[in-house]
Amino acid sequence: MRPTEQVYSAYTEEDFEVWKILFDRQMEHLDGKVAPEFLEALENVKFNREEIPDFKKVNKILGSMTGWQLITVPNISPAEEFFMHLAEKKFTATCWLRKMSELDYLEEPDMFHDVFAHTPLLSNQAYTDFFQSMGLLAKKYNFDKEVILKLQRLYWFTIEFGLIRSGEDIKIYGAGIISSKGETQHALSDQSVKHDFDIAQIYKHDFRTDVIQEEYYVIESFDQLAGAMDVIERALFDEVKA
Ligand SMILES: [Fe+2]
Asked: What is the sign of the dihedral through the CA atoms of 219, 176, 136 and 132?
């Protein structure tokens, strides 16, 4: 059974070692590739190699910056529940870490993914405005199946696997890339296709969760996403375009 709440004293020496190895390794792989917004956010939440993040401390920081909170779940949440929490500025996160023998492959997200990769940007106002709006839309349309499917695709190609322009370069901000050694190297290489952010295309774009992505969408800024919510909502029902 996975833990349903974080008991900090229950972390083992192996957990701390796994955190440190993954932290060091990803910081090295992300060097020069990750969005400056993520690095700034990492400083906001004070994550470091020595300490597995303590949800109480993280929530204090997020609470004062954007009003967001982590809530602990044992495993990945069902879509409806996940979006419902987003609407209330709550992000569902696991609090267990993979074993040393599973450093490179995991069947389900652990806290290195949920916390290291997802949580820092919960301190960024424009990012969280967009993130919350997805939850509010799901709620507004009563968790309609079609709406949820489109929002899941939007979530996938932004929050999980999004790229962002930074000056002349393209950088990573998606959590699925940030926590993956292989995807960090692949996402910015010539091996993958990069599209400009296009909501109609994203709503039609089916994705696979079990492979490295072949296509990514590049946003200009988090303000672009936060400012596009009207279009994002209208396109949910625009059968011709979407
Ligand atoms: Fe994720």
From this structure: negative
